[in-house]
Amino acid sequence: MSAMIQLQHLTKTYGRQRGIQDIQLQVAEGEVFGFLGPNGAGKTTTIRTLMGLLKPTSGQAFIAGLDCWKESTAVKRLVGYLPGEFALDPTLTGAQILSYLGHLRGGVDQNYVRQLIERLDFDPSKRFRDYSRGNKQKVGLVQAFMHKPRLLILDEPTGGLDPLNQQEFYKLVQETHAEGRTIFLSSHILPEVEHTCDRVAIIREGQIIQVNEVARLKDFKQHDIEITFQQPATLEWFAQIPGVLNSILEPNGHTIRLTTQGSLQPIIQIAAQHEAYNILTHEPNLEEIFLRFYANEAAQPHKKSLA
Questions:
Q1: Phi, psi at residue 259, to the nearest 5°?
Q2: Average pLDDT score, the chain
Q3: 3-class DSSP string for 186-212
Q4: Number of helical (H) and strand (E) elements in the chain, helices listed first
Q5: Within 10 Å of residue 164's Cβ, how many Cβ atoms?
Q6: The domain 222-283 is classified under which CATH number: 3.20.20.70, 1.10.4160.10, 3.30.70.100, 3.30.1330.60?
Q7: Where in the chain is the domain with CATH 3.40.50.300?
Q8: Over 80: is that where the pLDDT of 39 sits?
Q9: E strands of the chain, at which residues?
C-alpha cells in the first residue's frame, strides 16, 4: 500500500520555544491514523506543517508524494482540513459559508452536503456568530467532508459535539475508511482514537515516542488483579511468575493484589490451586496505557518504535 503521508526528520522550532523535533512518520493510503498527545505536545504544529501553513525548520513533509511546502496548492486540492481553531466571517450564515467554500473547491455535490447537514443535525440558516461551539464545529466538519477528499486531516474533530453527533462522526469516519480514503486524526480524547483508528502515534514534547497498531498498543497494557482466598494467602505463591510487576497482601491476609503484564493463565492456575473463591481483573483502556507511556518516558530518554 502506497504512502499518503510521509514525514522525514521534520523539525519546526520557534526560536527558543519547542515545536516538533526530528519527526519520522508514514501513513498508508486508506488508513485511519490517530495522532495522540496532550495540548502543547506538537500535534497542531505537525498538522500546520503538513498543510503548508508553516515552513519546516528542517526536514520535509509529503502528501501523496507532493512536498507540503513547495507544492502546497496542489496538496490542498487533495485534502479536507478541519483546524483545531478556525475563524470564519461572523456575518455569514452557515449555508453561505459552505456555498463559498464549495465554490472555492470548483463545486461540490450539493446532495451530499445536504446529507451531511441532516446527519449532523445542523441548522445552516443562522449567522456564524450566533452558533454555539458545537455548531461551529459542525460547519468545520461539513466543509472538510463535503468534497470527498482523498485525505482528511482533522485536528480535534469532536470538540464541542454532543454524544449523538460524536457517534455520527464515527460513522462518517467508518464510511470514509470503507471507500479507501485516508484520515489523519489528531486528538487528546483516547476513547475516540481507540474507537476509530487503525494505528496511532503518541507525541510527547515535540517528539514521537511510539507508533503502533491500536490493537498492539493494548498488548502493552497491564492488568490489575484482586484475588481472594479461603485460606490465609502468601505473596510467595506468585513470586516466580513472569510478568508479575507488583504484589500486595491486604491486611485481611486473604486478598492479594497483583499488577501483571502478559498472559493471566499462570496466575489463574495458581489461584485455583490455592482455592481462590473470587478474582477481579481490571483492563486499562487506551487512556491509561497512554498515561503510562508518559510516565515511563519522563524517567528515561525518548524512544521511537516505528511500525
A1: -110, 120
A2: 88
A3: EECCHHHHHHHCCEEEEEECCEEEEEE
A4: 10, 14
A5: 10
A6: 3.30.70.100
A7: 3-90+145-218
A8: no
A9: 3-14, 17-28, 32-36, 58-63, 66-67, 79-82, 151-155, 182-187, 199-204, 207-213, 222-229, 244-249, 255-261, 276-282
* Cβ-proximal residues to 124 (8 Å cutoff; 6+ apart), any chain: 93, 94, 95, 98, 117
How are the residues of the chain apportioned to helix, strand and coil, as percentages rounded to the nearest 5?
A: 35, 30, 35
For 131-168, how does the pLDDT look when each residue is reduced to its tens digit (9 = 90+)?
999 999 999 999 999 999 999 999 989 988 998 999 99
Residue 197: what residue type? C
Exposed/middle/buried for residue 297 (C-beta within 10 Å: 0-12, 13-18, 19+): middle
Task: Check residue 125 and give its pLDDT.
Answer: 96
Grid coordinates standing for 199? 494505528
Q: What CATH number has the domain spanning 3-90+145-218?
A: 3.40.50.300
Q: Which amino acid is at 111?
A: N
